[in-house]
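Hi R.,

Here's the input for the zinc ion complex you asked about:
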Amino acid sequence: MPMISMKELYQDARARTYGVAAFDVINYETIAWAIEAAEAECMPVIIMLYPGMASHVHPAAVKAITEAMAAQTKVPVALHLDHSPSWEVAVKFMPYFPSVMVDGSSLPYEENVALTREVVKVAHTMGIVVEAELGHVGSGSNLDDFQNTDKFTDPQVAAQFIEATGCDSLAIAIGNGHGQYIATPQFDFARLRAIRAAVDVPLVLHGGSGTPDDQFSECVQCGMSKFNLFTEVNKRMGDAVKEQSQEVSGLLPILSRIKPAALEIMRHRIHILNPNGVKAF
Ligand SMILES: [Zn+2]
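And here is the predicted structure with zinc ion in place:
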């Protein structure tokens, strides 16, 4: 089927209470495998590019491959730009992405509002939707980043932020962190429920890698819709390359042999995000 818009995807995910896995991709294989994993689970998927990866894989290639692969599958596929650090980066990538994130979460509140509002202004004239971040999702390798509640999202401030910026979805901090966690995260579900009640827009979890399965499912039950994943998939593929390079030589056989490991971890996450067993598509 053709690509689906984030708006349509979120509408269905919220109406039927499931979460959508959003995978950061780095090459053809990671795009194709994410879509194959979604198809095996009869669930939609979001393909994301982190702007820093654009030196490795051109955004035009990510767009073209994603569109081509989406046309071959029966499940909905959406395309999104992860973590623009600035207005310039967000705008530069808009020709390739119908949905972009701008992350002003490390700025003071007023500056985050101003940056997000300026990105929204340009994006909306082009029919592009914007994900913003409030509270700050730091690193899973720094305890203070994911345990210090001062960095978590405040429900009332979130409502003001959305009103002030016009952003279309919101990444929130509830005890989550990017990369590898050095201690098991304990998400603040009371806060998630309060944010869900205070705002209308879809909610996004960054730092999905390493989250215990039950906490992923609970996030879905609390109304969270998009779950960013990269680190654990990337690590699993890297470990598989290491193992397989002992067995075979040459990149092609290694790539074919690591595919099952990649599919397994991607399918598992997609499955966990569907705690109510919805047959999405
Ligand atoms: Zn993130």
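One thing worth noting: Residues 32 and 69 are 7 Å apart (CA to CA).

Cheers,
M.
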